[in-house]
Specification:
The chain has eight helices and seven strands; from the N terminus they run E-E-E-H-E-H-E-H-E-H-H-H-H-H-E. The chain is globular.
Length: 211
């Protein structure tokens, strides 16, 4: 495994296959989320995971609030810096939002797209208020309260009964700093509405959803 630091974004590079798969994690997790997928694919593909800016080992800047545009530009820069030629890209939740915005900017960047538990719409008023609540909790030192509440949002009711899985996801979530969680919540609130551009996607797309 190779590690890269691309403008403050920590990138993990596995395998040496001819085809590349990029995995983009969910909020409020980090690239460690993809450990099982890395183990499965790395013997046949080049697998790229990374911590989106503000989470995991990627740098958070308090000079300006992070926006979805920053995450899209980071993904474009990763592909350029590593000279990735039309990789497959898979995004879960915020990872999907990043992909959809990136496709608006660079329609031909990827060969195939996997969108998992994500959506093309921007936030509703209700969700915008929820993002503000997250930021407020981080400012008040209530990170643990947020994580305990949010844990049930990222695991299905059935899988929540799996103690090992539940504890591992809680552990990954606990790695994140309050500043990083708040900045990512802000980025979620600033994403664009991509509904009208969906029919412009000109590559194969796999959509995965769950209850």
């Amino acid at each position: 495994m190779k590690e890269h630091n691309i403008s403050g974004v920590k990138v993990f590079d596995y395998g040496e296959g001819n085809e590349t798969i990029i995995f983009i994690h969910a909020f409020p997790l980090c690239s460690a989320q993809w450990e099982p997928q890395v183990e499965y694919f790395k013997n046949k593909y080049r697998v790229i995971t990374y911590d989106i800016r503000g989470l995991g080992y990627s740098l958070y800047s308090d000079i300006y609030p992070l926006m979805m545009e920053d995450h899209a530009k980071d993904l474009i820069e990763i592909c350029s810096d590593l000279k990735l030629e039309r990789p497959v890209v898979c995004g879960l939740s915020i990872g999907g939002y990043i992909i959809l915005r990136t496709l608006q900017i660079k329609p031909d960047l990827f060969s195939k797209v996997i969108l998992a538990n994500t959506r093309a719409e921007n936030d509703s008023n209700e969700n915008l208020i929820a993002r503000h609540t997250i930021v407020s909790q981080m400012k008040k030192g209530k990170k643990d309260l947020f994580l305990n509440q949010f844990l049930k949002n990222v695991i299905s009711a059935k899988n929540y009964e799996n103690e090992n899985l539940r504890n591992r996801i809680r552990e990954i979530m606990s790695y994140q700093t309050p500043e990083g969680i708040a900045s990512t919540a802000n980025a979620l609130a600033t994403r664009t509405n991509n509904i009208n551009s969906l029919d412009e996607i000109n590559v194969p797309v796999l959509i995965i959803s769950s209850d």
